[in-house]
Amino acid sequence: MPGRELKPGELLLVAEAFTGGFYVAVSRGLFVPMLAYSGYSLESISWVALPAGLGGIALSAAVFRRSEAVTSRFRVLLLSSHLLERVLWTTPPFLIQWLAAEAAVYLLGNMFSLLTSLLLGVLIFSYFPSEREVVRVSVQRSAAGAAASLLGALFMTYLPTVAEPPTVYYVLYITAFAVGLMSTVTLLLIPRMPARVEEPLQPGDLQEAAMVKGVNAYLVLVLMNAGGNLVGLAWSPLLRGLNAPLYVPLALSLTGNLGALLGSFAWKSYRAYLAAMGVNTLLTALIPFVRVPEAHPLLSLSTSFTFMGANLLGMQLFAQLSRRLGRVKASVFSTSAGYLGLLLSTALSIAVRMPPGAALLAAASFKLLAVVVAMLAIPETAVVPERRVYEYSRLVYSTSLYGYTFTVQASREFLKAMLEMLATVALVTLIYLVYRLTALLAGV
Predict the structure, then answer these.
(1) Quick one: pLDDT at residue 391?
(2) What contacts 442, CB < 8 A, 6 or more positions away?
(3) Which pick of 7, 58, 212, 279 has the fewest CB atoms within 10 Å?
């Protein structure tokens, strides 16, 4: 891209993150508290979230294997996915009485969200020529998104004090949709967005070495996100059990976004990223033992502040690997980790019917595993000799590859069965409607 176009493009990408940050903070931050305070249990909420994790993994695998499907129609896919995601995320408060419908919307909304995030990652990797610029713009976008999320969380925390459910849910989601549309308009204004993206080819040995490092970094992000998602699922039910008013779980989002904003600028080196992840693990383990609801927003600030260490580690590593892995593969790694983490966390909470406190301790265990992998298998954060890092990284890579292959196949089979079930339900409903219509016409 010419130098004169770099600055406007950078500013517009940051503006897109800012307006999108408000929309995401409200639409995602309200979802679990809305279900929990509507009477749904942790297990029920996990069933809503499970298909989204499976769908995200299946979509990520498909894009990873056939990257040309998104690079050949890049601009059209990005803009249409960006808009459709926002439309879908307007509907949750209107479906609160139908949990199956919530699960379907959550699945579709998250799949479009994944595709949008993936394509935005490809755009950033393509638009900026150097690793330093990619990291700088990504940090700026992260900070802008966190600042807007803070505003969204403030709005989301204040509104329940002046309006009652379900009215407050309708107002919040419609407002989020309106602001989310502004981010789509901002994206339209980016100068010379490529209609298609060309992927440079790399020698096989370079690709293999990059893949080993990429898979290990991916595993760290997956485990951290599994812990983070389990915290998100269990924290509101825990507070409900402590008889906390609705504004307390909503305040978690407010202080969490403030922590993410501060964390974007606090962690500056690989060692700092590792230290932040370690502290985050300890803080997560403390959550179920804090019995005063009003103290939990401060815990949310601290956990979000330290969780940014994991995000920045992934951002740095995949910016470094994007030229060797390819822009699409690097973007798939960095964006799909949250969905595999979501799958792990929801599957665990369904398979093992844990109370919220036990789920939070399980979340800390996921994060501890991530810290161990980072200490042993990633050269930049390892605390063992270089030769050992190579051995551990190969071992982790091989193990992770088998596990991921199994997960992808299971996800495909589950989604296939789910679609067949939905088709059967639709057919039975249609037959019933035809029968009723015939009966009415016949005067029976």
Answers:
(1) 73
(2) none
(3) 7
Which phi and psi (to 5°) does residue 290 adopt? -95, 110
Instruction: Tell me which residue of 357, 235, 252, 241 sits closest to 294, measured CA to CA.
Output: 252
User: Shortest CA distance to 70 belongs to which of 119, 25, 141, 103?
Assistant: 119
What CA–CA distance (Å, rounded) separates 45 from 349? 10
DSSP-assigned states of every residue in 74-123: HHHHHHHHHHHHHHHTT-GGGGTT-HHHHHHHHHHHHHHHHHHHHHHHHH
Per residue in 346-386, pLDDT (tens digit) is: 888 887 888 999 999 999 999 999 999 999 888 899 888 87
pTM score above 0.85: no
pLDDT-wise least confident of 53-57, 96-100, 255-259: 53-57
Distance from C-alpha of 75 to C-alpha of 279, rounded to nearest angstrom: 40
Mean of per-residue pLDDT scores for the chain: 84
CA pair distance 425, 423, nearest whole angstrom = 5
Q: Which residue has the tokens 């383990």?
A: 285
Enumerate the domain spans of the chain. Answer: 3-411
Nearest to 160 by CA among 250, 294, 292: 250
Tell me which fold the domain 3-411 belongs to.
Growth Hormone; Chain: A; (1.20.1250)
Amino acid at 348: L
Quote the DSSP letter at residue 201. P
CA angle in degrees (0–180, nearest 5) for 377-379-384: 70
Chain center to CA of 302: 19
